[in-house]
Design brief:
CATH topology of the largest domain: pyruvate-formate lyase- activating enzyme
Largest sheet: 6 strands, parallel
CATH class of the largest domain: Alpha Beta
Bound molecules: S-adenosyl-L-homocysteine, iron/sulfur cluster, FE3-S4 cluster
CATH architecture of the largest domain: Alpha-Beta Horseshoe
Number of strands: 21
Shape: globular
CATH superfamily of the largest domain: tm_1862 like domain
Strand order of the largest sheet: 2-1-3-4-5-6
Length: 426
């Protein structure tokens, strides 16, 4: 029986796709290898969103391919870099056998069987039909609601490597969610590059979210990602309307400057962004807000950058994912004038990080002495510890209790270190 080894880089979509890849291989008779050196097939699921992500994943491909003797293991590049570069990767990496993009995973067993060197990079119109994933994160699970992206933010490669936006049927989503709940899963994250553009006939995302939450009241429900242009009162009401929808919203702002937001093709202005965060905070007090920000986009002046810093100070996000701009060839921004020198991008990134880290610490420390519900996700790194998540998606390390993953527990928070909190069973 052949053995596989899989490594996943990139976003939640890739994590979820990695689970599908495993499901496809297991149905075709493969088994998981105890490590890469025991595998007959090695798969690297790559991310292309920033240059560093791409270099890192391809570096790992080189490393894994370096140990092979007589085509063992067969090396497969999957994911967004596979889609981006296609067959040219076979020329660049003589020890790679297969290059398979995100909409071609079901062809993998056939390609492996045929023993040829090949690439498969068609972009499809399907959305996770007919695949039984091997779940990797019990008691948490990702459920795809949409694939692809049509937004074409000018810096972003995702629409090119993930294809056009398409939504999954509500009945398929509900069936998956119900099955997860009955197998003991307790946190479900609905996934799409822009969940707000979900649509199936008369069903938009707010209705879908409410339906899912109603169907599995025993589970916590989250979703990513919401585009600020399309986020509005309906989704806010849906979130407020069900107690098991987590009070957490990832709403990537990207920049605080109207001029840069326009050049990014984001479709909203700073004032609208601020109005939406204020609305959601008023309706759902204590909601945990997070963002993505890019430093050093082409044409970003000092003054634009200060608008980004002031947005961070004004909103006071609980958490921020901050990036320096990375040029991706083929995107609209790659041809824009006003490239910001890399050292300047880095120093702006560091200034943003310093500010956001301080805000994150300040907000986390406010939880000291509070009792919060925590979903236990597994053991902690030390003996006698457990780890879990709060509804706001904060990580909590719990001491003095034992419980299996999937247990809900009230925890008295004693201290915080950034996004990680420490506490004891209340
Ligand atoms: N669909 C999601 C996720 C997109 S990728 C969304 O719209 O939020 C995740 C983040 O990577 C983006 O939000 C953006 O902040 C960052 N990103 C994308 N392209 C980038 C680039 N070329 N350089 C730097 N950061 C980038
Ligand atoms: Fe990229 Fe914009 Fe689509 Fe997000 S919404 S995946 S940033 S193009
Ligand atoms: Fe995700 Fe990276 Fe692809 S962010 S969609 S894995 S380019």
């Amino acid at each position: 029986m052949p053995f596989y080894h899989i490594e996943v880089y990139g976003c939640q979509m890739n994590v979820r796709d990695g689970e599908s890849l495993e499901g496809i291989l297991v149905s075709a008779g493969y088994r998981k290898a105890p490590g890469p050196d025991k595998a007959d097939v090695v798969l690297v699921v790559t991310c292309a969103v920033r240059e560093r992500a791409e270099v890192r994943a391809l570096g790992r491909v080189t490393q894994l391919a370096g140990v092979r003797r007589r085509r063992k293991p067969v090396v497969v590049i999957c994911g967004c870099v596979a889609q981006e570069h296609g067959g040219s990767l076979l020329e660049r990496f003589p020890q790679v056998d297969l290059v398979v993009g995100p909409d071609e995973y079901q062809r993998l067993p056939g390609l492996l069987e045929s023993g040829v060197r090949a690439f498969a990079t068609g972009l499809g119109s399907g959305c996770d039909e007919g695949v039984r994933p091997v779940r990797s994160m019990f008691p948490r699970a990702f459920v795809t609601v949409a694939r692809g992206c049509d937004n074409f933010c000018s810096y972003c490669i995702v629409p090119y490597v993930r294809g056009r936006e398409r939504s999954r049927k509500p009945r398929d989503i509900l069936a998956e969610v119900e099955e997860l709940a009955s197998s003991g899963f307790r946190e479900i994250t609905l996934l799409g590059q822009n969940v707000n553009s979900y649509r199936d006939g008369g069903t938009g995302f707010p209705e879908l979210l409410s339906m899912v939450a109603r169907a599995v009241p025993e589970c916590w429900i989250r979703f990513v990602t919401s585009h600020p242009r399309d986020f509005g009162p309906e989704l806010t009401e849906a979130m407020a309307g069900r107690p098991n929808i987590c009070p957490a919203l990832h709403l990537p702002a990207q920049s605080g400057s109207d001029r840069i937001l326009e050049r990014m093709n984001r479709g909203y202005a700073r004032a609208e962004y601020l109005a939406k965060t204020a609305m959601v905070r008023e309706r759902i007090p204590g909601i945990v807000l997070s963002t993505d920000m890019i430093a050093g986009f082409p044409g970003e002046t000092d003054s634009d950058f200060h608008d980004s810093l002031s947005l961070l100070s004004e909103v006071r996000f609980d958490y921020g994912f901050l990036f320096r701009y990375s040029e991706r060839s083929g995107t609209a921004a790659a041809g824009m004038p006003g490239s910001v020198p890399v050292p300047e991008r880095l120093s702006r990134l560091h200034a943003m990080q310093e500010l956001q880290n301080r805000i994150t610490r300040e907000k986390s420390s406010l939880l000291r002495g509070k009792t919060l519900p925590v979903l236990i996700t597994g053991p902690g790194s030390l003996e006698g510890q457990l780890t879990g998540r709060t509804p706001g998606n904060r990580t909590v390390v719990v001491t003095g209790a034992d419980a299996p993953p999937g247990t809900f527990m009230n925890v008295l928070i004693s201290r915080a270190d950034g996004w990680t909190h420490f506490g004891e069973k209340a």
